[in-house]
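Need a sequence for this fold. Nothing fancy.
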């Protein structure tokens, strides 16, 4: 009888330790993410619908796959559902917390990192921009601002403040001709990411648009290389904004020196930026080219303008900082877990020496690193902008280091922004 108990207990513990981790579950969907995003959606959908401690992370991956497949309305609905799950005050039961000490961190519900919760709204805003629904995109921007304000009020680490969120908001406010709100958002973005060089011109231009002469003078003094451009006041021009999502974010693995703790490893991509070329189409093309050549004399033949993206937000950097900041909590949790395992194993050992040793081994084997993360995020978010005369255009997208290209037909309206989102894996 004792032999059967031993074998049964060991079998159960080893089965638990061998259960497929999140990374193993989602890996098959990631492999087809680029070649067949609809297939990735099919693989992730049942996981996202299954209630449990891992549901949130699968919902985020599922929403991202829907976005990659161009199913923006469905993606938006899934992001909204994921946000509700992330915001729910669903406290883990005592049994689950005890289980996480005895077995693994994966026993408790995944709530997402703070930066991930902010990015839910940022990614959803991209859905609405693709759908041309600026008002809905602004709703997401307001939600981002609320979250960022709360994080700051709670004294959370500065890296959680997202320049991407602020910058997206600024562009949307500017597109909606709410220039004072746009200026404030550009300034917030600059406070978080002063090294993002396009903000220098943005601050001067938006201060002028908001009719803040003192701020115009302040920023022109700070950035003497920025010149006032006549096109800022031209009513017949619009702007094309490329939002480029590059590569894969970092991936979680167990630490080689201690399998109880995760670490993040960057996923290599040879691509660092994307380029857009705008070519006018239709009967207005010759006139548009003539106007454009006055302001963009270096544009390629038949092109009205070119622009290259600059990186505004690195998921790699933020995710690694978030994990490092959480290390003290993880260390305390696992130290407590080892002590709990020792107590349980000792209680078993007092009754059966061999079974006690087996229990100690099995419990430690089951204590695996928590590898759950929103792993379908891009490596970085990058933006390029180009002011052009209103009209119809063909936009050609490419990325040095990759053979991938994309061509789309767009319409630029006077005084408005046309947003284009491109994801390259």
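Here you go.
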């Amino acid at each position: 009888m004792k032999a059967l108990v031993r074998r049964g207990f060991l079998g159960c513990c080893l089965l638990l330790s061998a259960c497929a981790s999140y990374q193993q579950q989602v890996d098959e969907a990631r492999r087809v993410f680029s070649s067949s995003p609809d297939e990735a959606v099919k693989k992730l959908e049942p996981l996202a619908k299954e209630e449990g401690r891992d549901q949130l992370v699968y919902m985020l991956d599922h929403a991202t796959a829907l976005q990659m497949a161009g199913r923006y309305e469905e993606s938006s609905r899934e992001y909204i559902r994921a946000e509700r799950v992330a915001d729910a005050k669903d406290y883990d039961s005592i049994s689950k917390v005890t289980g996480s000490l005895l077995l693994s961190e994966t026993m408790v519900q995944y709530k997402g990192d703070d930066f991930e919760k902010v990015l839910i709204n940022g990614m959803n805003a991209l859905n609405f921009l693709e759908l041309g629904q600026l008002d809905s995109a602004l709703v997401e921007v307001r939600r981002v601002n609320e979250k960022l304000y709360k994080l700051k009020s709670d004294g959370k680490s500065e890296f959680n403040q997202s320049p991407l969120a602020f910058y997206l908001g600024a562009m949307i406010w500017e597109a909606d001709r709410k220039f004072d709100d746009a200026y404030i958002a550009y300034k917030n973005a600059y406070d978080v990411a002063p090294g993002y060089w396009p903000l220098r011109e943005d601050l001067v231009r938006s201060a002028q648009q908001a009719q803040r002469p003192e701020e115009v003078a302040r920023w022109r003094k700070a950035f003497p290389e920025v010149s006032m451009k006549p096109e800022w006041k031209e009513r017949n021009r619009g702007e094309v904004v490329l939002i480029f999502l590059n590569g894969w974010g970092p991936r979680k693995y167990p630490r080689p020196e201690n399998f109880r703790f995760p670490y993040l490893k960057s996923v290599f991509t040879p691509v660092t930026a994307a380029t857009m070329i705008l070519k006018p189409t239709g009967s207005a093309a010759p006139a548009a080219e003539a106007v454009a050549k006055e302001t963009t004399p270096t544009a390629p033949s038949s092109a009205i303008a070119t622009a290259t993206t600059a990186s505004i937000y690195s998921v790699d950097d933020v995710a690694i900082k978030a994990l490092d900041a959480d290390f003290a909590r993880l260390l305390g949790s696992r130290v407590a877990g080892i002590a709990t395992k020792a107590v349980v194993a000792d209680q078993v050992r007092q009754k059966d020496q061999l079974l006690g040793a087996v229990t100690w081994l099995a419990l430690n084997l089951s204590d695996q690193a928590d590898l759950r993360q929103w792993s379908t995020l891009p490596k970085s978010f990058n933006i390029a902008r180009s002011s052009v005369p209103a009209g119809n255009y063909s936009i050609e997208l490419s990325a040095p280091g990759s053979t991938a290209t994309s061509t789309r037909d767009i319409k630029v309206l006077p005084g408005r922004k046309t947003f284009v989102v491109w994801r390259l894996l």
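For context: Confidence is low (pLDDT under 50) at residues 1-19, 90-103.
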